[in-house]
Amino acid sequence: MFRILIVLLVATPAYARDNGEYDHVDERLRAWFKKLRSPATGAICCDPSDCKRTEADTVGDHHRARLPSGEWVDIPPELVIHDSGNPTGEPVLCALPSVGGSRARILCFVPGAGL
């Protein structure tokens, strides 16, 4: 059993990691990303490495955002964060990338100014 656990831990890909490519991000902005919580679960949903500024729009009563792949996706209302402010001023989408043909997993979305 212990060996299986070790194999699973080693073989599981780590999606949210900061390999230094976010060193230039202001510490206050990093702190903002790290305090974002999913409205659906209350769990911390984001890390700067999960989140990207994105294009977004509102269609009817819901938001849509563009994934890094270029695909537009509807954002479930329970994943939209309205009460955290947005120091970037732009829409921010936090998502795990698609793996093996699966769709990207949306963690949360923060509308930009005017959305």
How many helices? The count is 2
Structural class: alpha+beta
Q: How is the largest sheet built, in terms of strand order?
A: 1-5-6
Query: Mind describing the biggest β-sheet?
Result: 3 strands, antiparallel
- SS strand fraction: 15-25%
Strands, total number: 6
Helix content: 10-25%
What is the rounded Rg?
15 Å
Q: Which outline best applies?
A: globular
Low-confidence parts lasting 5 or more residues at pLDDT below 50? 1-19
Give helix and strand order, one letter per element, not per position: HHEEEEEE
Whole-number average pLDDT?
A: 77
| Cα separation of the termini | 50 Å
Written account of the structure:
The chain is of the alpha+beta class and 115 residues long. The protein is globular. The protein is built from two helices and six strands; from the N terminus they run ααββββββ. The strands form two sheets. A three-stranded antiparallel beta sheet has the order 1-5-6, with no helix packed on it. Strands 2-3-4 form a three-stranded antiparallel beta sheet, with no helix packed on it. Residues 1-19 have low confidence and may be disordered.
